[in-house]
Amino acid sequence: YERVSSSTSTAPSAHGTGGEGGGRGVRLSVVVPVFNEQDVIRITHQRLCSVLAALGEPYEIVYVDDGSQDETPAILDEMAAAHPDVRVIHFSRNFGHQAAISAGIDHARGDAVVVIDADLQDPPELIPRLVERWQAGYDVVYARRMERQGESWFKRSTARWFYRGLRRLADIPIPLDTGDFRLMDRRVCAVLRALPEHHRFLRGLVAWAGFRQIAVEYVREPRLAGTSKYSLRKMLRLAADAVTSFSYRPLRWPLYAGAGWTVATLALMAGEAWRMSFAHHGISGASLLITFSLLGDGVLLLSVGVLGQYVARIHDEARRRPLYIVREVVGGRPSAQEGNR
Ligand code: UDP
Ligand code: MG
């Protein structure tokens, strides 16, 4: 945390324009997680470059190739060869979107870091507005989706649900309808780098980190080409990571369910006992009892499942395997520390 405290103490009300600190005068780092995006990546690169060139500040683009299986790695290397300010971090395999962003942040050298998707759903043209807010003194400028175009009803409604559900569950307020498209000051990045946890829900971690945060609103465009790289499985995993990282509440549900279940069963048993001894009914409510106990089994298994979600994550943290593995870093200017985490 050294870097955090030392730079905090000298923080001006607005971010200075000196460009000292950070890395070799890089003002802005743009981190782009990329997984099998051969159809869009060149266009993304062009649009990013023209936006960044117009800003007139020294910049770098850090592409994180998340174990792509198509032509993406070769295209990225080509781009790095053509442009000294482009660096490509190749993962040894697919580690997932959040790991890719973490790697990008770990490798970024700028005074501010912008995270943006590779599929142009997040318009690069919004970056100047993010930078403007940063220069006005904000440490985190996140882009909030006003509208999502060209996405399925399923995606839009599950996302809507997810953000609202998470807001109710989480112990800290996590901004609604906000993806990973955002600008972060290097102080915030230093906090993120220092966090040891594996199952990262970065939007939550950034909210948790605090600092001065502000939203900029935008319309999420349709993906330019290709299909979503977020399978249902990856979406579910992200949701589970988000909930388990920021809420203990699901752990209380088995307790409530167990208590409710026990009370109900006791009541049922009392009722049966009464009927058998006073109303001389024989063993009547047998089928009712069976249904009840089957329901009980369901509640029990569900509860064990909830516990499992947390235990598995504790296990992962205990194993302390790296968050990602870098196969190769291509392009850019040499730097002091590169590696796995
Ligand atoms: N991505 C990644 N690793 C993955 C899945 C996705 O790096 O395992 C990247 C992907 O290339 C894109 C961004 O993460 O730049 C967002 O993914 P996508 O657009 O497929 O998700 P959606 O916008 O459909 O939620
Ligand atoms: Mg997308």
UniProtKB/TrEMBL annotation:
Record's keyword annotation contains Electron transport: no
GO MF, any single term: glycosyltransferase activity
InterPro entries in the record: Glyco_trans_2-like, Glycosyltransferase_2, Nucleotide-diphossugar_trans
Record keywords, A-Z: Cell membrane, Glycosyltransferase, Membrane, Transferase, Transmembrane, Transmembrane helix
Pfam family, one: Glycos_transf_2
Major location (coarse): membrane
CC terms in the record's Gene Ontology section: plasma membrane
SUPFAM superfamilies according to UniProt: Nucleotide-diphospho-sugar transferases (SSF53448)
Record's subcellular location: Cell membrane
Domain of life: Bacteria
Disordered, as annotated region: 1-22
Keyword Nucleus: no
Transmembrane segments: 255-274, 286-312
Stated family: Belongs to the glycosyltransferase 2 family. GtrB subfamily.
The protein's name: Glycosyl transferase
